[in-house]
Amino acid sequence: MRPIVLYPVFSQLTALDGIGFKTYAFYKKLCGETIKDLIFHLPVNAIDRSKKVSLSNAEENKIHTLSVKVLGHNKPAKTSRPYVIAATDGTDTMNITYFSTSRDYLPELYPVGAEIVISGLLEKYNGQWTMLHPDYAVPKNKENEIPMHEPVYPLSYGLTGKMVRKSIEKALVRVPELPEWIDEHLMKQKGWSSWKDALVNAHTPTEFCETDKDRRRLAYDELLADQLGLAIIRTHNKTLNGRKFVTSGDAVERLKKSLLFSLTESQETAVNEIISELESDKRMSRLLQGDVGSGKTIVALIAMLHVADSGSQAALMAPTEILAKQHFETLSKFLEPIGYEIGLITGKGKSNNRQETIEDIKTGKLRMVIGTHALFQSDIVFDDLGLAVIDEQHKFGVQQRVQLSNKGKGVNILSMTATPIPRTLLLTAFGDMAVSRLSEKPKGRQKIETSLMNSSRIAEIAEALKRKIQDGSQVYWVCPLIEESEALDLNAAKDRAGYLKNIFGKDVVGLVYGKMKSEEKDSIMSDFVSGKIKILVATTVIEVGVNVPNATLMVVEHAERFGLAQLHQLRGRVGRGEKKSHCILIYQAPLGIMGKARLKMMKENEDGFLIAEEDLRLRGAGEVLGTRQSGARYFRLADLERDKDLLDIANSDAKNILAQDPKLESERGKALKMLLYLFEKDATVPLIRS
Ligand code: ADP
Ligand code: MG
Questions:
Q1: What residues flank ligand 1, with Cβ below 6 Å?
Q2: The model scores a pTM over 0.85
Q3: 196 pLDDT above the threshold of 80
């Protein structure tokens, strides 16, 4: 149960004056639903209004605070025209201009002859000093009502800086003092203030500084909560009654023998790590990390087969239905020669033997199954689920893993990802997991040749496509989809597909996009897999997560809009067969310096790990984990680049804490529990050893 002192910070934003039903929706989009979300919305800059100069030596396009005398009003007949107030500070004249339609209050605000202090952006318009809608305008004797320093917040639709500032001020008043959870020595060493002081200071910067002490303290809180939560889960996992999945090893041996290839060294290592953990009484929570095409699927299958062979059940969850089906087909083929069966569960009513499959999972007759999310959510009951494999798991967070592993008698988890995850993220987003890494690709794969091309050369590229297709190869053509204008982007993709159909013929070009009906999508995808469709135009990344070894060209339009890790994953869709593969990154000129550098990096590098590090540096954790789109960010106060040092401290501190005070009973321990609640690690609290 969440401690009572935290209630005020967890109350809904509508509890604040000035946030009604409508603005609440805007705030929800901006930062979240509760007071805590709002107070963790930190400024990104500070306006300095302390500069007081006269008009004669003022600087254009800067924020200025001026003391002026009102000369007169020019009130136009039509409200569509601006309302102009003339003023002077003795050194020069200026106009104070309003475009707003409600202007009745202006004569009262600016009485002719009165001394007024205004603050805002000073511009030159037609050679005349102009201030459009001053941020502040007060009589001379109330000058001190203008804050000399003002935080600047990230905004979103429907909210102004003033609204957000006011709301945050009100929210801060409700924030309680909390007991200190940071280690005493660290506090001294860093010269940090208490939580509440740091929070208030961070919102009232006199001079904005990204690496400010108070911001760093708040970041540390977040990192510590994260690391402590993970340490608790890890400790808890160790205490769980593991189960030993023991077999004669015969099934796995037969499977390996029946393969047309032998496993790579790192596949062998991963298989051994996984199997020995399955055989031990430890419960497995493991991440299998391997670049696209490194052969994760077969490793997963071996793990599943081991569990099935021991008499328990294994399930593989794929992110999309198409991928689930493809996995089903590949794995069925692998299993056929050794006489094992695997089931497929897709969306309701799709396959006529769905009910039968469900029944067989329930009775345990079927010991391996593949499906989408539905596998773990709906009416599907396992006889005895021992292993859950999650493919491309970025959207599956720490909390979900805890929930999943608590299902049944203790589910072992194997997560697979192609995103080469930088160390900082391994410590955080995946900190509860052990890692197996596939560091090499199967032999015989060739380098993928990457070239950059200006979008003006589309016709040339189409020409190159002809050669590929005559060669019997297939092509992916990716058009980006950007949230803001989905319709427009979709049109662009449709146009592109149309263009290619004109050149190559209707039947050989297919288009898939996110919002498409899944049956339609499926049928096009399977036409591509079977080779009937030669060119697949796609708007989304996920849909092309399929394995088509015959595809040897990847074309990406507007490559500059993609993240590097994303481009790398796309590129990994080709180069899966024996033939030489190519990737063409089409960009829209002009590219900035940064854009050029990024694409050049893609061209010159095939090391997914390097690329991901770079991507993390440039775009932040949310993007690399693929959560940014959904609005969720992994950290909001910490910045993994800036706070790398703090992450290390938090990591070792969390371990020490649990070693010394495993039940979190000391004064500090109790404060730390509060910290866990504050950062919504509620699921970890019941796991604290009691
Ligand atoms: P990913 O890691 O991207 O999921 P897959 O598991 O889909 O990669 O493997 C890509 C392709 O490589 C598949 O066709 C798979 O059968 C093949 N493959 C896997 N392991 C090996 C190996 N050791 N030698 C040769 N081919 C392999
Ligand atoms: Mg895969």
A1: 261, 263-264, 267, 290, 292-298, 418, 442, 547, 549, 576
A2: no
A3: yes
